[in-house]
Amino acid sequence: VDECTQQGGLNGNHCHLNTRCVNTFGSYICECLPGYRRQDKFNCVEMDECKSGDHNCHENADCINTLGSYHCQCKEGYTGNGRDCKPVCNQTCLNGGECRSPNVCTCRTGYIGESCEKDLDECATGLHRCKDTTDCVNMPGWYFCKCKAGFETKGKECVDIDECYLNTHSCHPTARCVNTPGHFRCECPVEGDPDCRLSCMFEDRELRDGDKVSPSNAPCKLCTCSKGVISCVEPPCNCSSWRPGVVSELCCPQCDPKQSCQHQELQHVTFRSGEQWIYQCQTCECLYGEFDCWKLECPPLTCDNPMPAGPADCCPRCPDDRCGFANLTKLIASSSAEDVGVGTTCLYGNHVYPPGPFKYPSRECTTCSCKVSFVASHYVPYYYYMHLVALQKTTAIRTFLILSCFIQFREDQV
């Protein structure tokens, strides 16, 4: 007898609402309809999948219970069908940055800003590993180390230039030039020479000790003669006290709002005179209210298996760090320049690592160990390169050294 064909009675079924009668041999059962759970043998009640967690809504979606079912709706700031929700950023994430939360771009290493439009200046923030004999030179997205004035590149090191031997010093002919590391000093004989003068020879003229003068080709620089040694510095610019129309302030164009430049795409982003940024795989620089762009110079790769440049990349890059430090911007935001210096973290393969062992991405069988208070620097001669100087529109050749920091380890023992 098929009890499911009849409701109630001796030969019928007694399945109530929210159930479905299923005939079996000699009897029947009451199955719960989808979205309902069993209350007893003949009754089923509505099931709240949202409360029970028995749903497949995305973590950034709200679960809304309905009669016998549910539906998913992406939270504010996200878009999708509820089962797959992606964040929405009103701004464009540039330079490989990704929108990973509403209106927040997660920037790649070397970039900062609301839209990842600004270069992170590793030199100014102290996030570099240049030796004492080198200067840090910031580049859009990276940096390199070059020998300081008074040093020159020989092999892998920066060695002192003997200004006295080369006769490139500023000592008066009556004084004696004494070479020092990276510089020189002028001395008069110990026994005394009434004709000896500790004045400076500068641009074919003599400056008395303590005189100050600006070079003929750089009127904004100020050079001082100190006991025969001439030293020149750029004037400090205090934009908080800057006043338009003052002649002395012409040497500080970065303080003049009229000398700034607007980003090509982000209308709310402006750059001061002298600042650089990257746009459509070009390096752009603002100079006196106008900007010029040229082909982006890619940083040297420090890994063995670089990834090809993707749609959002301008240059090939190394695989993301698997130790959780792929995004340097997050580390910088939560730490001061001193906190990420030598002794607290290690820089290896363009990544910052905390003290302790870590896996180097391009060497699967190598375990490196970052030792507290230890980091080693190694300078590798890179290449001579040609670069259009935006201001003079001339070609300049610069020789520089690329920094390659490494943690000491022996691969042959792994």
Automatic annotation (TrEMBL):
Residue ranges annotated for the EGF-like domain, each copy included: 1-45, 46-86, 87-117, 119-159, 160-197
Keywords of the record: Disulfide bond, EGF-like domain, Glycoprotein, Repeat, Signal
Domain VWFC residue range list: 259-319
Highest taxon of the lineage: Eukaryota
InterPro entries reported for this sequence: EGF, EGF-like_Ca-bd_dom, EGF-type_Asp/Asn_hydroxyl_site, EGF_Ca-bd_CS, Growth_fac_rcpt_cys_sf, NELL2-like_EGF, NOTCH1_EGF-like, PKC-binding_NELL
PROSITE patterns: ASX_HYDROXYL, EGF_1, EGF_2, EGF_3, EGF_CA, VWFC_1, VWFC_2
Record PANTHER family: EGF-LIKE CALCIUM-BINDING DOMAIN-CONTAINING PROTEIN, NEL HOMOLOG
Protein name: Uncharacterized protein
Organism in which the protein naturally occurs: Anopheles maculatus
